[in-house]
C-alpha cells in the first residue's frame, strides 16, 4: 500500500554547483572524479530534457539540491541528460549513482518512470525519488504536484491583465502532465471572464522532438499567437518557454512563466519587465524534503503530493506591475481561497 502524505513547502536557495562523476551524461566532480564506491554520499539528481539552465523546471530541482548540500554538508551530484537517450541510458545513470553510494537518487521528470522502476529494484536499500510521475516501490517516493491549481491562478491573472480579450497557452509536449497546466489555465480564465478567448498550442508530440528544449520553437509559437491578438502568453514548456518570454517581451505583451519565479531568473533579466507572474511549482522544496527525510533516517516513500494547501504550488507576485493591475491581486487571493476550501474544483483535463 502506498503511503500518501502532503508536505509543507520548504524555501530553497541557489548556490554554487558541486558535482560527482558518473556515467551517461555530462558531469564533474568535487573529489577529482574518483569512481570509488562510497556509502551515504548524499543527494543526487538526474535532470530532465533541457538540463540545468532552463530557468524553470530543472533549475528548481537544482535549487533543492544546493540547499541540501549547504545544510547537510555532504557530497551531491547532478547529471545532465544526453540527446536521444533511451530508457536503458536513464536506468544506467540511476544505477551508477546508487552504486556510488548516493542516497537519495532522484529522477527529475516523468520520462524517468521506466528507468526508476528498474533501478529501484536493483538497489532496494537506496531511496529513489521521481518528480512528476508515480512509480510503485517500497523505496520510491513519487513527488507529484497540483499543477492545475497554480495554472488556474495564472488563468485568473491572464484574464485580469488582457486588454484584447485573447490570451495564449504554449505547451511543450502534448502529454497528460502538460494537459493539467492547460486545463487549469483555461478554467481560471473562463471563470474570471467568459469573454476571454484562449489560444492553445503544443510544440511537439514527443519530448524527443524538442518540445521542452527548443526556445526557437517556443518563440515561433508565441509570435503566431501574438499575431492572432493574444496579449498574455502562458508557457508550460521548460527551456522552450524562454522563447515564448522573449517573443512576448519584444511585442510588449505579457508573459507568464512556469515552475520557477522567472521574473527573478538572471538569464531572463532582459525580459523581466514583461513577465507578469509565474505559476510556481516547488520542485526544489520537494527535492530537499526527500533528502532531509533520508538524512533524518526516516525516508519518505509512496506518493507525496504538493498542492496549494501546503504551498507546494502557487503564483509569484514579484513583478511590481502585478499589484498595479486593477483587481488582479484580489481575484487571485479569492481564487486561491476557493481552491483550498474546496469551493473551486480545478479540472485536470
From TrEMBL:
Span of the signal peptide: 1-20
Assigned keywords, A-Z: Cell membrane, Lipoprotein, Membrane, Signal
Provenance organism: Streptomyces luteolifulvus
Topology relative to the membrane: Lipid-anchor
InterPro entries found in the cross-reference section: BMP_lipoprotein (IPR050957), Peripla_BP_I (IPR028082), PnrA-like (IPR003760)
GO CC annotation, single: plasma membrane
Presence of keyword ATP-binding: no
Source species, domain of life: Bacteria
Lineage: Bacteria, Bacillati, Actinomycetota, Actinomycetes, Kitasatosporales
Keyword Membrane: yes
Main location: membrane
Coiled-coil portions: none
PANTHER family xrefs: ABC TRANSPORTER GUANOSINE-BINDING PROTEIN NUPN, TRANSCRIPTIONAL ACTIVATOR PROTEIN MED
Protein name, per record: BMP family ABC transporter substrate-binding protein
Annotated compartments: Cell membrane
Pfam families: Bmp
Family that this chain belongs to: Belongs to the BMP lipoprotein family.
